[in-house]
Amino acid sequence: MQIIIDGRPVEAKADESLLSMVKRLGLDTDSLKTRPLAADIAGEVFTLNYIPMRQKEQGGASVDAVPEGEQNEAPTTLRMRKAIRKSNGDIKLIRYSETRGKAIYERTMLYVFFLAMRELFPHAKTKVNYAIGAGIDISVDMPELPFSQDDVEAVRAKMREIVQADYPLIRKRLSIADAIRLFEQDGQEDKVRLLKWRRFTYFDVYVHEDYADYFYGEMCPSTAYASVFDLQHRNGGLFLLRPSTQDADIATRYVYQPNLSKAFATTDRWTDLMHCRCVADLNAMVEDGSVRELIRVNEALHERRFAEIATEIVNRGARAVLIAGPSSSGKTTSANRVATQLRVLGKTPILLSLDDYYIDRSLIQPDENGEFDYEHINMIDVPQFNEDLEALLEGKRVEIPHFDFKTGTRQMIGHYVQLRENAVLIIEGLHALNPMLLTPRIDKRLIFKLYVSALATLNLDDHNRIPTTDVRLLRRMMRDYETRGATIERTLGMWESVKRGEQRWIFPYQESADEIMNTTLVYELAVLKKHLYPLLQAVESSSPCYDEVIGTIKFLNYIQDAAVEDEIPPTSILREFVGGNAFYR
Contact 252/241 with Cβ under 8 angstroms? Predict the structure, then answer.
């Protein structure tokens, strides 16, 4: 069988893995920047351990790939065979530079970490919490002494040892009953609870000696690939640091982010209060109906947080509030809810949007690649905004522009604004925290900076976090479909560009905020699934984003959907995405 790997033809031998062929072609390297981690075949992701052509004795004949279910080390060979046929044997290698590559690497790195913890501290309870920057926050509950710096050093050394050992990562398929029995015997009750909600009769695990685990997606071929990492001790646990975004061959440098850490800590307290820390908790609440009380408590916590932020704005004597955050964080609803709380405190809020300072679309120039970067700060008429904000803070009457998205032009429509006594400007937009918006002439004491983002802390199980970006993507798909008539494919097609813009223009300034508001609602996945699942299932296998869609469907399969729209307040952040938002009427 001849296949093509990254444009280079190679003859596949019977029982030869993709990894072996990659090495024969000289495409394997020691650098994470260039080393292949997995394969893209017809839009689907496969581990390099997969074997395109298997030989099986059937009266002396050889067959290409044993059908799915006939052997347990490559349970998806039938799916792979279909993908190879669909792609005409054309295989593209996935590297760390891709979003998929980063996810594959993180799973492998976590496997190495948990294997090291198991060998050194078999009785410790270790839990992945969330990601802060390039670090993954992990708590370690030791039965005796607290987790120490010396323990961290021991784990780092053990991880290096496991990487050097180059253990192959072979996936095995078990029945759900066998998987549940295995995890029960191993004390992984979190996985037992989650698997009881799985809709399929099988479950795949990665096994090394007596350790079995799974990370809900493809992994690298062996432990040797997870060579770039570092560990940083923290009280009660550690940060597992991923490769640097600037140079994938070195681990990122640990940078403490107090504001973001505080926001996550607040949400941790909330999830404890609501008794909902993982998907199994949420599913149980959906099943027994207590999800309605969960919604009421979660929304009350949000309202209390907005009230606290408004009180701080007033106590500081701020005259302007700048609200920024990445896509689908709920900036508009947050601005309105802050405005409501300011009214309670006797203030007169004036809502403005940075979108109205967009330059005319006809003036936008393509970049060096001939593409248009709509996330760039230069899309905003910064000098005009500077001039208007200065004048407003001086008490002058200013005409505010209006950007017409239908015509792509900025217009003056007679919208005048003046900051009188007790008035507070509330300005929201992607670039609201960019220091370019505040000239040296502006008194920074008059400015309150608020960063909002959906910082997910609800996890699948103790070893598998739900990335914040995934939650925002679900929100974005829902809103684009409901309000803009956009297909799932269109939203997914734009998402990489959106994320690049966020990395460049939004995330670098999040720590400069006076406060960070986590807009995630612990119950929202159950509601989003109800709306999104049919749309995702309608995407055809020929779609270029089919693999992403299938990955999302697999993730949502673990979540029970909830028909509870009548319980969601019209001012809820979630209403910005599923419809019925009171601020849009």
Answer: yes
Q: Are strands 211-213 and 202-208 parallel, antiparallel or unpaired?
A: antiparallel
The per-residue pLDDT for 372 is 73
Is the separation of the CB atoms in 503 and 326 below 8 Å? no
Secondary structure of residue 240 in the 3-state scheme: strand
- 113 C-beta neighbours (distance < 10 Å), count: 25
Would you say 565 and 527 are in contact if contact means Cβ atoms under 8 Å apart?
yes
Kind of pairing between the strands at 90-94 and 2-5: parallel
Cα–Cα distance between 558 and 546 in angstroms, integer? 19
Q: Where are the alpha helices (DSSP H) in 87-132?
A: 99-120
What is the secondary structure of 303-330 as a DSSP string? HHHHHHHHHHHHHHT-SEEEEE-STTS-
Quick: pLDDT tens for 42-98.
888 999 998 888 776 334 333 343 333 333 444 456 777 788 888 889 999 999 999
At 565 the three-state DSSP class reads helix
Band the pLDDT of 585: cuts 50, 70, 90.
low
Phi and psi at residue 419, to the nearest 5° = -85, 100
The pair of structure tokens assigned to 181 is 């029995």
| Residue 564 contacts residue 296 (beta carbons within 8 Å) | no
Count other C-beta atoms under 10 Å from residue 137's C-beta. 20
Beta-strand pair 44-46/125-132:
unpaired
> How far is 457 from 266, CA to CA, in rounded Å?
11
In whole angstroms, what is the distance from residue 77 CA to residue 328 CA?
38
Distance CA 296, CA 374 (A): 38
> Residue 486 carries which DSSP code?
-
At residue 41, the 3 state secondary structure works out as: strand
CA dihedral 81, 87, 89, 92 (to 10 degrees): -110
pTM equals: 0.90
Phi and psi of 137, rounded to 5°? -80, 125
Cβ proximity of 287 and 320 under 8 Å: no
Q: Mention every residue, 6+ apart, whose C-beta is less than 8 A from residue 466.
A: 279, 456, 458, 459, 460, 525, 555
In contact, 132 and 257? CB cutoff 8 Å: yes
Answer yes or no: are the C-beta atoms of 299 and 576 closer than 8 Å. Answer: no
